[in-house]
Amino acid sequence: MIEDANLDVPELQRWQRRAFAVGCASLALCGLGAFANPDQFFRSYLFAYVYWSGIPIGSLAIIMLHHLSGGAWGMMIRRLLEGATRTLPALAILFLPVAFGLASLYEWAQPQQVQADKVLQHKAPYLNVPFFLVRSVVYFLVWSALAYFLNKWSRQQDETGDPELAGRMETLSGPGLVFFGATVTFASFDWVMSLEPHWFSTIFGLAFIVGQVLTAFPFAVALAIILSSRRPLSEAISAVHFHDLGKLLLAFVMLWAYLSFSQFLIIWSGNLPEETPYYVKRLAGGWQFFQLALILLHFALPFLLLLSRSLKRSGDKLLKVVTLILVMRFVDLYLQIGPAGHHAGLHLHWMDLAAPVGIGGVWLGLFFRQLLARPVLPVRDPHFAEALESGH
To answer: Is the CB of residue 267 less than 8 Å from the CB of residue 276?
Structure first.
């Protein structure tokens, strides 16, 4: 049995300080750019925010899935996921620039646009600034409450080893996933889909949720692989666990591809004038290369590689695949948000790179601090010994 589950990685503190410093510097640079081009700043900031918020939000879903289903795979990355969810209050603060930039980001937040557009007038009871802000507050309250109790009981489990705490987390996870699904679905409508308020898709919310999970899960797997050569993960995680994580990653990749293609097929075959412009815009003007990249590098290549049993059991090889997926998550979200701007064709701006570095650096600094604050393995969980044994 592993006696000390605390991370023995002194360089993590250096990673934390460097990430936070780089993030603050990049955000300061974006702040200067906001004076010259405020619309671009808010667009780039929203893109970066949606990407990085996907890790703690998606982590919350994976934790609850693990508590309901069990399995050694979740036991090895659970504390990495919990550390990510504890950054949700900080992400609520980082949401403030989005709240202040509503008039720059969304047509429905511009009174002159609403007055001239009957569709926006019809949607105004839902798409209005006060109700948007109230909904966003509710989202963060629900997510933070779920994360609070799951982390609280997990910490108590470390301290007491009480087997009843595992039952509490399982009991909360069932209804928690229902509330999670509802709130993230509406958040996807508010934050992303309403950038183009004339367009709608009934499958968008579910596809967005899977995308968030597909950001969080590869991140946790990548970090687990990096830390697997250091105590205490080196004493717990094995090729069998990597194999299980790789199989689940393959399932998420396939689900993302299925939902993305289903949305495209239904809208394109329906050929409705209020729906097809979304894809017409994204299949021209340079954006078509992003679509091709998603097909090849977000689905086809990871799918083929993850079919290999030997690759899934090799930490080094699996790390390359999850890194590719994390990069392609940027591409997927940029394709959702970028064309909704004021440019007809592909338009890359330096803040589209600086904003993700800024928010990412700040978030990683906060995340590493949370990771170092608690044991990285739930050694007093009643199922931990079984999970440890299944990998050897």
So the answer is: yes
